[in-house]
Specification:
The complex is a heterodimer. Chain A is mostly helical. Chain A is built from 13 helices and no strands. In chain B, 71% of the residues lie in helices and 0% in strands. Classes of the chains: A mainly alpha, B mainly alpha. Chains A and B meet through helix 1, helix 6, helix 7, helix 11 and helix 12 of A and helix 7, helix 8, helix 13, helix 14 and helix 15 of B.
């Protein structure tokens, strides 16, 4: 296990390096030197201003030097300085990340709380009404663009019935968001439904696969009750595959998060990324891409470890 | 096609007793009403987008400022949008690019992914490690982030979108095919070819890839659905095909501005057709998977 972890950590470093390299090269494809400076400080900037801008951000160095400099800063936890917001990228992310953690974390927990029982129920009642209804609903949800689902929720709950706000609370911190819980209901509901659809499909097929195993038949033959069989044999064995799915779905969930933040105006990392992309604020784009890559890689590692914990047959060495 | 190349793997012996695999798969697919519904819906959507405009002529290039935000009527069955385009006609035109890009992505991404996965899994060792780390890197970058990145540099075109969406979608099939290859390459019949002196290329193309065909076909179907969704999201965020091209996502963005005015015809039709298209391809994919997964049929 230790060897496996060390191996995976080394691999992780390479994967994160790859992500930074791709993102950095892409950024340099987009714009360099004077054209970038002009895009940021405006068409009427003087030559002196442009030179200052280029010097400040070290844009006159070769790309490889800039990249190595970026990596050096990254190792020290420095993600660069925003072109537009006059703040270090690190500060911006640190302010906004807790809100994303709240949004994504709560949605993830809620989605799992619904998806796991639903998937098992569908598997047990395979090809019955419940199964078909569940499949139909999760199919439709899964096939819905995140923003369309969000818009539908706004149209129903905010415009027609006037029950909930159409916009998330605009506070700086998580506490200020939680102070207006009504405001976060719709964003979290949107993200939960999208994630739920993803999970319940996998949970259903994982449970169906487990149900076909010999040990389930043995348990039944020994006369164990349905509930005991489900809890002791099915749940634990199916959960193992769900942890993998959670790990693998992270990029998808974060992507949906960007859209949900955009629709509900949640001042989180996703919305910052979107704004940065629209305003050529590349240090923020780069920082957030690297962060998301890191989160994904760590999520996958945790999923692998959880897999071994939940399924004793899996041993890494 | 003969039985030797189409046999779907280990349980094929049991199948051969009852019937030939493709017949059985076809029957199983035909029995699946949802899959059939999917096929019908796919054909309807394709007909709607590509044959529809030949029958239902509308002007989707010149705005008509005398016909803004019209309610559905006899003249405009689904009303008009904020610059006076007929919405029904626009849905048809906008769908063409979505479906073209979706299908092209499925072919391109799947072909590349299958090759990558088969080579990686077949040769194993250091090559496998390197190739799979590349997959990990691509998987670790959320697609939307890269799309937005690229869309800020290049002016999106149909070809560019196909390449970019494919460049980030091939990792799925690559992983799946590699996994299957790992188990296929130690099978007796593959070993037998090796003993008889068959080349690596022959083994990969004649014995490994044909045996992963069910995984490949199912995955390709899902790729179409995912590509349509990604395109819609990109257009919604303003990073899709620029005007005068019509896109479903773009129609929704414009319609969303009128959410509070109750102009429902500018929001719901575009959303519904995206959902129907994606659901249809997912239904087909799911039906194919059920039909091809022999193991699950032994109930």
């Amino acid at each position: 296990m230790i060897r496996f972890l060390v191996n995976r950590l080394i691999q992780m470093v390479f994967v994160v390096l790859g992500v930074t390299l791709i993102a950095f090269v892409l950024q340099n494809l987009i714009a360099t030197g004077p054209s970038l400076a002009r895009a940021i400080i405006g068409p009427r900037a003087t030559n002196a201003q442009i030179t200052t801008f280029i010097d400040t951000y070290g844009l006159n160095h070769p790309v490889i030097v800039q990249y190595l400099h970026y990596l050096g800063q990254l190792v020290q936890g420095n993600l660069g300085y925003s072109y537009k917001l006059n703040e270090p990228v690190r500060t911006i992310i640190a302010t906004e990340l807790p809100k994303d953690a709240l949004l994504v974390g709560l949605s993830l927990v809620l989605a799992l709380a619904f998806a796991v029982p639903l998937g098992i129920w569908q598997a047990v009642r395979r090809n019955r009404l419940v199964d078909h209804a569940g499949t139909a609903v999760s199919f439709v949800l899964y096939s819905m663009p995140a923003y369309w689902l969000s818009l539908l929720l706004i149209a129903a709950f905010a415009v027609t019935w006037r029950l909930l706000p159409a916009e998330a609370p605009q506070g700086e911190t998580v506490t200020s968001m939680l102070a207006h819980p009504a405001g976060i209901v719709l964003p979290i509901a949107s993200l939960t439904l999208i994630t739920l659809a993803l999970f319940s499909r996998y949970m259903r097929s994982a449970a169906i696969e487990t149900l076909a195993q010999d040990y389930i038949r043995t348990a039944r033959a020994k006369g164990s009750s349905t509930f005991r069989m489900l809890r002791r044999h099915l749940l634990r064995n199916s959960l193992a595959s769900v942890t993998t799915i959670v790990g693998l779905s992270l990029p998808g969930i974060l992507t949906a998060g960007v859209v949900v933040e955009y629709v509900f105006n949640v001042q989180g990392v996703g919305l910052s990324f979107f704004t940065a992309a629209s305003t050529s604020d590349y240090p923020i784009e780069l920082g957030i891409t690297v962060l998301v890559g890191l989160v994904t890689v760590i999520g996958n590692l945790l999923a692998d470890v959880m897999y071994a914990v939940l399924d004793p047959r899996v041993r890494y060495d | 096609m003969t039985d030797t190349t189409t046999r779907p793997g280990p349980e094929a012996g049991e199948l051969a007793e009852t019937s030939r695999p493709w017949v059985l798969i076809g029957r199983s697919f035909g029995d699946n009403k949802i899959a059939l519904l999917g096929v019908v819906l796919v054909l309807l959507v394709i007909g709607f987008c590509f044959i529809g405009p030949l029958v239902y002529h509308t002007n989707q290039l010149q705005p008509n400022l005398l016909q803004l935000n019209q309610r559905p009527s006899g003249k405009h069955p689904l009303g008009t949008d904020y610059v006076g385009f007929d919405i029904l006609g626009r849905l048809m035109v906008a769908g063409q690019s979505s479906i073209e890009i979706g299908l092209a992505v499925a072919v391109l991404a799947t072909s590349f992914g299958v090759l990558w996965g088969a080579v990686s899994g077949y040769f194993g060792g250091a090559l496998d490690s390197v190739m799979m780390r590349v997959v990990d890197i691509v998987l670790a970058i959320p697609a939307l982030f890269i799309f937005i990145y690229l869309a800020t540099v290049f002016r999106p075109t149909v070809v560019l979108l196909i390449i970019v969406v494919s460049a980030l979608s091939w990792v799925g099939p690559a992983r799946l095919v590699r996994g299957e290859t790992l188990s296929l390459r130690v099978r007796e019949y593959v070993q037998a070819v090796r003993v008889m002196g068959g080349s690596s290329r022959r083994m990969i193309f004649r014995h490994v890839i044909p045996n992963t065909i069910s995984t490949i076909v199912v995955n390709a179907t899902f790729q179409v659905a995912d590509a349509v969704l990604i395109l819609a999201t990109l257009s919604f965020l303003g990073f899709g095909l620029p005007p005068p091209a019509a896109t479903w996502g773009g129609m929704l963005t414009n319609g969303a501005n009128y959410l509070y005015d109750g102009y429902w015809w500018e929001i719901y039709p575009a959303g519904f057709i995206i959902v129907i298209t994606v659901v249809a391809f997912n239904f087909v994919g799911d039906g194919l998977r059920d039909a091809l997964e022999v193991r699950l049929q032994r109930r």
